[in-house]
UniProtKB/TrEMBL annotation:
Species, as recorded: Holothuria leucospilota (Black long sea cucumber)
Cited CDD domains: MFS_SLC22
SUPFAM superfamilies: MFS general substrate transporter
Protein name: Solute carrier family 22 member 3
Keyword Membrane: yes
PROSITE patterns on file: MFS
Localisation per UniProt entry: Membrane
């Protein structure tokens, strides 16, 4: 008996699964808090060179604000920005060394010196928007201004490593064990990062935190999907996406209420403690994994508990001993499949194109998500909008892709994302600019969600899991690159978003090289996958006819489901 048949007998999606799915979804929400924490922990603000740091302004009958204004006006050069507005130089000051402050006040309105020098007494920061950040604590300005972006890239690299390591560990040792281990290690490291003494200590601890919290995320999602029946797995996946999107709003609210980055880091880590307790007492080991390990007695106990809570009556001779194990691809079969792909030019080019597609779409998605503070409105509001826009994007893409097909949906959403990004620099700073940029985020979210399913439909059975894993790993490269490209804002603030728009449009036309798969059977072999390309053209394919294949287990796929570990974001 197949495991999915047993799930139908105990209840595919009853009370038991609904409660566990709710519990297992919360780590996705909390994961977003850590994923994008640095949007606020490294929030950028105006800064300028410190001068006369030890002077007591009270002696001169000046308020602190008056004192700082005088110091700035006398010692800091004025520059003209790209919007023709004047601002104070951030990394240079007039050489006021040896000039008495009381004397300098007497000549306010004149430059004490025309010679400029780099900041030699530290910096003063405008803390009105971001009172406490790693930029302020570790003085990551001027020649060190690139370091916060590098820290974010390293955090994303930790996700790449974590998915790889703990995905394999979950298959070897069990979803629940790895989940509990990752909770403990990740939480301890996250708490430790709040006490970082310097920037590199912060980076290392955040990197390790990312590795372990990736272990939580991937095994939570896999376990959730293995507890529900096949007809409800798409729903289970969508629940995780909704948790992910809600996390944006939660982070924006917490960051507004808790302006100190260390306290914020501590607070967003606290929920992992009750989640650890809930997992230990209420989340079982995956019964599917137990069956595959030959531990059918333990699997049967879990299934009987599911049936009891779902109020399902089992037959008297119910047993898991005859439950068949999942067919696992062995290394020799996998090797043969990859050799066949290398020899098959059509499939090889398709996989290379799809890999590039995932890299670029992840690159654009994360680039837009991380650049919300540069839109000219309250950064907390813009970040909230960026997350809220994903909910209708995820909801609508399922229906749009089924109605218009994968190719049209992906092509036009990428084009529209590119257009929105390209227009953003020409829209005045403010709410209108934020809305235009959000349209770019909306369409790239739709596109990426569709292309994930499209990739599943293009790959043969022998390569489907390994192929999606390759695409997923490659997409993490895009997320690592996104913060680096945002450094171009220092050259021209609009350059990164223009680059995101350009890449979206380029990859849209590369999508035309893929065949339409709407209504077609899933290919079982490399030859069948190649056959999908036989009637492909660079325009949009006509509505496909249902043509039987040479395999007996095929079927029309409406909305294929992909594990969270193989999705992006």
């Amino acid at each position: 008996m197949e495991f999915d048949s047993v799930l139908k007998e105990v209840g595919e999606f009853g009370r038991y699964q609904k409660i566990r799915l709710t519990m297992l979804g919360f780590p996705a929400l909390i994961g977003v808090l850590h994923l994008f924490l640095q949007v606020f922990a490294a929030g950028k603000s105006n800064h300028w060179c410190q001068s006369w740091q030890s002077e007591d302004c009270g002696v001169l009958n000046l308020t602190q604000v008056q004192c700082e204004n005088f110091k700035r006006e006398i010692s800091i050069p004025v520059t003209v920005g790209e919007d023709n507005e004047t601002s104070f130089e951030q990394c240079k000051k007039f050489n006021v060394t040896g000039v008495d402050f009381e004397t300098a006040i007497g000549i306010v309105g004149e430059n004490v010196s025309q010679k400029t020098i780099p900041c030699d007494e530290g910096w003063v920061h405008d803390q009105s928007m971001f009172p406490s950040t790693i930029i302020i604590d570790f003085q990551l300005v001027c020649e060190k201004s690139y370091l916060p972006n590098i820290a974010q890239s390293i955090y994303f690299a930790g996700k790449l490593l974590g998915v790889l390591v703990f995905g394999i560990a979950g298959d070897m040792f069990g979803r629940r064990k790895v989940q509990l281990f990752s909770y403990v290690c990740g939480s301890l490291l996250a708490f430790a990062s709040t006490f970082s003494l310097n920037f590199w200590m912060y980076v290392v601890l955040r990197f390790l935190t990312s590795v372990f919290f990736s272990g939580v995320g991937i095994n939570c999602f896999v376990l959730a999907n293995e507890l529900v029946g096949p007809s409800r797995r798409v729903l289970a996946g969508n629940v995780f996406w909704i948790y992910f999107s809600v996390g944006y709003g939660v982070l924006a609210g917490l960051a507004k209420l808790i302006p100190n980055w260390r306290i914020l880091q501590f607070v967003v880590t606290l929920p992992y403690i009750p989640l650890l307790v809930l997992t230990y007492f209420f989340i079982p080991e995956s019964p599917r994994w137990l069956v595959n390990q030959g531990r059918s007695d333990e699997a049967e106990k879990v299934m009987r508990k599911i049936a009891k809570e779902n109020e399902m009556t089992l037959r008297e001779d119910f047993t898991m001993k005859n439950c068949t194990k999942d067919e696992i691809q062995n290394s020799s079969t996998l090797k043969e499949s990859f050799l066949e792909v290398i020899r098959n030019r059509v499939i090889l080019l398709m996989m290379l194109n799809m890999t590039l597609n995932w890299v670029v779409q992840a690159f654009v998605y994360y680039g837009l998500s991380l650049s919300t503070s540069s839109l000219g409105i309250d950064p907390y509001i813009s970040f909230l909008i960026s997350g809220a826009i994903e909910i209708p994007a995820y909801s609508s893409c399922i229906f749009v892709a089924e109605w218009f097909g994968r190719k049209k949906t992906t092509f036009f959403t990428l084009i529209l994302s590119g257009i929105a990004c390209s227009f953003t620099p020409f829209v005045p700073y403010g709410i209108l600019r934020a809305l235009v940029a959000s349209l770019g985020k909306f369409f790239i979210t739709m596109s990426f969600s569709v292309v994930i399913s499209w990739a599943v439909e293009l790959l043969p059975t022998s390569l489907r899991t390994s192929g999606i894993s390759i695409f997923s790993m490659s997409s993490r490269i895009g997320s690592v690159l996104a913060p680096v490209i945002l450094l171009l804002e220092d050259t021209w603030s609009s350059l990164p978003v223009l680059f995101f728009g350009f890449m979206s449009i380029v990859i849209a036309f590369l999508c035309l090289l893929f065949p339409e798969t709407k209504g077609k059977f899933l290919p079982s072999t490399v030859r069948e996958a190649e056959g999908l390309h036989s009637d492909r053209n660079l325009a949009f394919d006509a509505e496909p006819e249902e043509v039987p294949t040479d395999h007996g287990d095929g079927g029309k796929l409406k909305t294929p489901h992909v594990p969270e570990s193989q999705k992006q974001p």
